[in-house]
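[Meeting: bench + compute handoff]

Bench side (C.D.) handed over the final construct sequence. Compute side (W.E.) agreed to return the predicted structure before the next meeting so the bench team could plan truncations. Sequence as handed over:
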Amino acid sequence: MVLQSSYCRKGMNARLNYTKIGPRLAVAQAITSHVTADYLMTLPLRQRLISVYKRMYKLRFMVGDSQSQQNDFCNLLRRKFSRQDFDTRRNKLLGLSEKLPEDVFTERLANTYAFVFNATCEPDGAIPSIRFYEDLKAAMEVRSETNVLRTILMMEREYPPLIKYDHTYEWVDSVKQFYTLAMGDILNKEYNKLASTKTAHFIGYYQYEKTLAQLNESLTLCL
């Protein structure tokens, strides 16, 4: 396994491999173990969450080279696992009113861990021959999981506290109502009332959150 971080961490049994496309950090042993939905189903719900949380937390040094990126990742994990209810978020963003069955949510949990794990490393394999710029460009292309995780962490830094800590996702209702009214009579008193609030102008965050929710549905995740 070759990790994306460009330098060794204290206490980590690793070495730097210098390649045609730059240094690659290779660890002698996996930083954390894989987990399956079948294994998680043998645990009580709280223990399932703790098991996955601990595994993800061990990946914190691999999400980026800066301390701020690692802090963002840790803060995001804590909020997701301790404050956020996935069913509430999913229902609000997708217009649903259901609770995922326990086994379905557990499968998503295992898949999400695998997704984040893949986002922090590159598959083993020989570096291809680099002769032209296009060869270099292709060799340095990162995984799609890595791009998704980078976007999530970027949004984590940009989120206004008003919506970042709204764990009931009430701001989504305000955004939906505002833009429903905007399609009608803009002189409507309720429209003008909503227009004066900060929440109504979070359409960009709503579109991002909805896109992420749709990605979760298509890949069976709970990002």
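W.E. noted at the follow-up: The chain has eleven helices and four strands. C.D. will use this when planning the next construct.
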